[in-house]
Amino acid sequence: MKKGLNIRLRIAGWLLLAAAGLGLTACWGGILDPVPMARPTIEDVTATKGEGDLEVVISCRVSRMAGIKECGFLFGEEEMRTIVANTPTNNVFSVSVTGLKYGKTYHYQAYIDGGRNKAFSEMNIWKTKVKEVLEEDGVVTIQLPPPNEVWYESHSGETIPLAHESSILVSNTYTNGKGIYRFSQDLTSTGKMFDYSDQCLTTKENEDFKTLILPEKVSQIGQFGLSHLCKATTIVLPYRLASVGSDFLCRFGEQTAETSDIYFIGETAPSFVSTSIWNMNDNVSGGRKIDNFHYPENNNTYNSLLQTRLQGNATHYWVPTKYEINFAE
């Protein structure tokens, strides 16, 4: 009897242990797991740029799909929100987050939920592109380069050689959607560096410029100084610009279907503003296409000179603009 009792007790113990194991499996996944006690884990989390600058695709790879009731991500700037993903496919789940803003830092974290237990990844960071000229909520925010740099954006996403070589050019690089010409000294004049007038709209260089931002100390732009940038859409003219040569914007934006804008941020209207050089009728005298010439709002000097529509067949306007200017460190 004692031996039989011991056998029955051992069998009962084994059954209890088996039930406990099944219970633990059920606690995580709610289903009978073919590999008991092996909870799914987060192996890798990645983020990549979506279709535009303001979209990010976040993906998470897990060790196994069995036992996961819900999965997704926490995402946000300061306040985190939960974004539930679809059931993992091939051990990977992902979400696309749209509607982001330029120049922001977002945090994201993956999670998997087995019902009673959750697992989280480390917190990660996604930074959106800093847009050097951004119009939002009635304010144009402009990020200016250091005094020894010129910033640009190309249509191709590649570097653009200068029209004429400069002895003070140190480097020409293009990363994260921005090109940087870096010089060995502060720029006060553009010289012939961006004068593509002798290239007759036949080269990649003059057609590839989209945006050009000059540093604050440039006070002089010569004849044809920013010439034949025929597909450019944006140029920022600096605070101290006081002298320009004839046709310095010849053929600016002539071949772009996008809106073309000139941003002048100086508080004092220089003498050239009131001269005939600004009588830039479209497809007449140089073929310029300037839709908007922006100048600081609430400036009486500008208002008395510029706040009218131009004569002839011009389609562009003088636009009083509220600026927020930031300087690169």
Put the structure in a nutshell.
This protein has 329 residues and is mostly beta strands. Helices cover 12% and strands 33% of the residues. The strands form five sheets. It has an eight-stranded mixed beta sheet with strand order 12-13-11-14-16-18-19-20. Strands 3, 4, 6, 7 and 8 form a five-stranded antiparallel beta sheet that branches.
Could you explain how this protein is built, in words?
This protein is mainly β and 329 residues long. It folds into two domains: 42-127, Immunoglobulins (Immunoglobulin-like, Sandwich); 133-327. The chain is 12% helix and 33% strand. The chain contains three helices and 21 strands. Strand 1 (42-49) and strand 2 (56-62) form a beta hairpin. The longest helix is centred in the N-terminal third of the chain and has 28 residues, at 2-29. The protein is elongated. The protein starts with a helix and ends with a strand. Mean pLDDT is 79; it is low at 11-32, 275-286 and 308-315.
Low-pLDDT runs? 11-32, 275-286, 308-315
Alpha-carbon distance between the two ends: 89 Å
Order of helices and strands: HEEEEEEEEEEEEEHEEEEEEHEE
Q: What is the averaged pLDDT score?
A: 79
Structural class assignment? mainly beta
Q: What fraction strand? A: 25-35%
Strand line-up across the major sheet: 12-13-11-14-16-18-19-20
Radius of gyration over C-alpha positions, nearest whole angstrom: 31 Å
Helix content: 10-25%
- How would a crystallographer describe the biggest sheet? 8 strands, mixed
Integer count of domains = 2
What is the number of strand segments? Answer: 21
Instruction: Identify the overall geometry.
Output: elongated
How many distinct helices?
Answer: 3
